[in-house]
Design brief:
Pfam families: DUF3107. Helices cover 17% and strands 36% of the residues. It is of the alpha+beta class. It has one domain. The two termini are 23 Å apart.
Length: 75
């Protein structure tokens, strides 16, 4: 599952691939947002943790990973 996180005053979004389901990600985001001093904590497929204070979140996009294409042809 691909997750994109927008952060205040950051020129780029954070993007990670995770094995969690959309429901698990949604639950983690909602739980973090329920605490005024909350921290969103997600782990990617390589085991790295991404921690973002909820006061700095602008958006969280949950979607399917894009299939990576190789070459110049169109299919």
């Amino acid at each position: 599952m691909e997750v994109k996180i927008g952060v205040h005053n950051a020129t780029r979004e954070l993007t990670l691939e995770t094995s969690k389901t959309p429901e698990e990600i949604d639950s983690a985001v909602r739980q973090a947002l329920s605490d005024p001093q909350g921290v969103l904590n997600l782990t990617d497929e390589r085991g790295r943790q991404i921690l973002v204070r909820t006061e700095h979140l602008t958006y969280v996009e949950i979607g399917e990973p894009l299939e990576r294409r190789v070459g110049f042809g169109t299919a």
